[in-house]
Amino acid sequence: MIIAFSGGKGGTGKSTVSTNIAVLLEDFALADLDVEAPDDHILLSTELVKVKDVNLFQPVFNHDACFACGRCLDACHDSAIISGRDGKPILIPELCGGCRGCKLICPSEEAIKEGGKFVGRIYENLTPYGFPLITGELLEGEEKTYRVLLETRRYAVGKYEKLIFDTAAGAGNSIFKALEGVDVVVAVTEPTPFGVRDLEKILEVTKRLERRTVVVINRSGTGDESVVESLCDRYGVKLIGRIPYSENVMKSYFENRPIVKTDLPEAEVFKELKDRILEEACK
What domains does the chain contain, in order, with CATH numbers? Predict the structure, then answer.
């Protein structure tokens, strides 16, 4: 079973919700797939322990064995390969996405050798709350998030049967991969124009992926929630919870202490939300 938390817009409280739900679901592992800015380990007061480096494939051209046929240029969707004066390929490393298309299509077995570039790390550790946390982290200065996200996802899925994914903001290609094959997507939004705009993008993504989706409003009471309700109706998804705008929730966030570990009334909101999410995931 895989439960994914997404939200489109950054700052909606997606990580706050996912980490608190993970604390309640102790038999699930949590995978932080926001590889550009992973922060679940901070919210859970957990040290990172590296288990694997992530390397991006990059071609190394052997011009002595190259036929100068140009097939690798045509196959490169990143436009990372250009033709030299002799018609033989030259790589622009900064643009290469590591898809291996050039190597797969090359008619010469010796013209393209395996090369690699270190682009990120995968960490795994046991949180103070008894469940594992897997974290993907893109190397500072790198721009290609896809490979690190993909390898982190593969690592988590290959090791654990029950998983929570905390995805990145946005609705790009990496989000499609993060949400692929999950049992339910929990879209966390806020009742603001930007929150609603990006919620619609996520709902469009999950519609195309045919993923069961539910919506949670965070910071409830701070805006016009009827717009969120109308959007849910239009896409045929359930609005399963509202987390109130609360000083207690904010304080627990800044103290890196899950609010579900307190006796505060807001903890009950998350406990009810957990039950509704599990109900949807089991359908």
Answer: 2-44+127-281 (3.40.50.300), 56-118 (3.30.70.20)
